[in-house]
């Protein structure tokens, strides 16, 4: 999630450095400033070494109170990658190894995908 029509500043590194250096600001205030500078929630969480949910809650409150327009950033999920690798003929073990992911998670995704395909064929 990021602010709509706000481009990330070219000198974002120096902006972040200045925000983080200010010891008089709370974590929440720093998060709000970074968000308004164009950083995504995930980026802020990583920079501040806090949970994503903490940053999300702070920025969501800012969005509501300030009536800000935001856009949800859609990225390819791990599930999408697993399905593509399965379609390419890779085994569950190969997928789990390449993605460094738990085998049971891969098994579950592939099983659900196969079930969805069977339903689609019967219709």
Protein described:
With 123 residues, this protein is mostly helical. The protein has seven helices and two strands, in the order E-H-H-H-H-E-H-H-H. The protein is elongated and about 60 Å long.
Summarize the structure.
This protein has helices at residues 12-21, 27-36, 41-48, 52-66, 78-87, 92-99, 103-122; strands spanning 2-3, 70-71.
Strand content: under 5%
Q: What would the average pLDDT be, to the nearest integer?
A: 89
- Report the radius of gyration as a whole number of Å: 20 Å
Q: Please state the overall shape, judged from the principal axes of the Cα atoms.
A: elongated
Strand order of the largest sheet: 1-2
User: Biggest sheet, open or closed, and with what strands and sense?
Assistant: 2 strands, antiparallel
Head-to-tail CA distance between termini: 36 Å
Helix content: 55-70%
- What structural class is derived from the secondary structure elements? mainly alpha
Count of helical stretches: 7
Order of helices and strands: EHHHHEHHH
Poorly predicted regions: none
Number of strands: 2
